[in-house]
Amino acid sequence: MSPPAAAAVAAAAAAAAAGGGGGQPQRQQQQGGFGQSITGIIRIAVFWYFASKFFSPKKPVDPSNLISNLFQKGEPLDMWLYLSEHQRFNDFGNEASLVWHETNIPYATWGPESTRTLSLDYHPSDTLKNNGSLYAHVFFARSGYPPDPNDPEYQPQAAFGRTHPVVKYLPKSRSDKRKSLLGNSKDGEVFEPEPQVADDTEADSKDEGPVEWISYWKPNITINLVEDFTRYAHNAVPPNIAPYLNIDPSQGNYYPTISFNEFWLLRDKLIAINETVTVLPLNLEVGPISMMKWQLFMQIDQSFQIHRSYGSMVEGEADELKRVFLEGNPYLLVITMVVSLLHSVFDFLAFKNDIQFWNKNKSMEGLSAKSVVVSFLCQLIVFLYLLDNETSWMILASSGIGCCIEFWKIGKAMHIEVDRTGKIPMLRFRDRDSYASNKTKEYDDIAMKYLSYVLFLLVAGFSIYSLMYERHKSWYSWVLSSLTSCVYMFGFIMMCPQLFINYKLKSVAHLPWRQMTYKFLNTIIDDLFAFVIKMPTLHRLSVFRDDLIFLIYLYQRWVYPVDKKRINEFGFGGEDEQTPSDTGITTAKEDEKKTN
């Protein structure tokens, strides 16, 4: 059934799980892309609507060359709804095909009499159970006039109708290539794939053979009569309306537009039809819809298709976004839309300040160099995992750029040299003097030593669990999915060495606080998304792990007073009093730090 119009401004969220141990990483990506998808979709839909409304070419038109609606506002209409297995219908005398009849429905008015509903059970035929088709034929006519063209009282300008399929065909998911690598799958264990929307790349893949299609029942049929009394110029109807306009060939005017509204019909509500199905539920509704709301629905659906064609949205994300607006609190959703915009701003500022910090940083004193290396390895693991699971190119490009940036940061934290002594050139990493010549390296080694014990135990335990109880395409996929899942579940542990260094040095002045503040704000926004987006309870609780680390950082900033003589993140003292004779010495030391 059609929800309120206010929810129509919906627009993101989650890539389908790739399987095996990869469900957790895919759900994590869902949070990151929610704000970008929702703003992009709404922006495209609104821009498209107003562009077609205000910027369409306007030329002087002869009033005699205008077409108008054949029906008047508030005019009473009778409605007939027939169900037939044939796409063309003319058997009006078959009472068994008539499932719904209503009289005196006021056209394009809102009130108790304007909306009618009916719920019934439909018993499918044997043909329908075997991938057969079924169509809903709806007819409207002025009260007192019949819809049957063979009736003596029939008038062509008094009746109109439209046909709509009640059955939707979706490609059956291909045989799952994943298997138990230990060969201990339970006999008779069946993994039922979820229905998917046809995709060109999937349907045309040559190495998989032909695609098997399955019929699904639409349990809800919403019939809307569009409130449109615009006088259009002949042969100049707006292109977004022309395909839906039903023109009377004798007079040139148009009938009221019938719209079958499936905007809120989610994919998981579809019912698979097979030989075991005996009864199918069918909920019918007829009512008016405003011109603006109807066009907004169409533009949002078209924006979904545009995002899918560019790879910025995968199948299923549109339904997840609609579900958020259907099941979420309206006030919370408005807040979420606002903070999603802030999320994009904070994400950009955090990225900008992170690059700025490492570009200008002249000293590694107080900073964990090993955490930078581990961060690059984690980013590389995620990139390889996404590549193995055939993720959209936009996500791959974003992850690949992140890998390059993390490797660049290694070059700022350590000396990278090319060793050409052997047959194959190798990269060698050497600690900078500002890192190795003080207690920072010692504390970093101690923290990483004990944390690595904990991390290795967690990775080994989870990998064994994944190997025993989950299925994978290959041993390579098992390694990648296990490591990627550990990165998302236990990756926050790698932030702990910096906490240990801060504790030992009793200072936090060396940290990039501006960048960390933006990241902390983004983490709070992710916490809000965790309550809005549908996800398991354990995963919802896991998003608060980073909050704990950031709170400890804030506690350290409060406990350890600011040492104005300590070198800050840009290699300078906070309030060093310099005499003219010391200026040259200080400048020389700063230049020396640039090379260390």
TrEMBL record:
Sequence intervals crossing the membrane: 331-351, 371-387, 450-469, 475-496
Species this chain originates from: Gossypium arboreum (Tree cotton)
Family per similarity comment: Belongs to the CLPTM1 family.
Upper classification of the organism: Eukaryota, Viridiplantae, Streptophyta, Embryophyta, Tracheophyta
Region (Disordered) location: 176-207, 573-596
Alphabetical keyword list: Membrane, Transmembrane, Transmembrane helix
Protein name (database record): Cleft lip and palate transmembrane protein 1 homolog
Lipid bilayer topology: Multi-pass membrane protein
UniProt entry tagged with the keyword Iron: no
Compartments, as annotated in UniProt: Membrane
Keyword RNA-binding tagged: no
InterPro entries in UniProt: CLPTM1 (IPR008429)
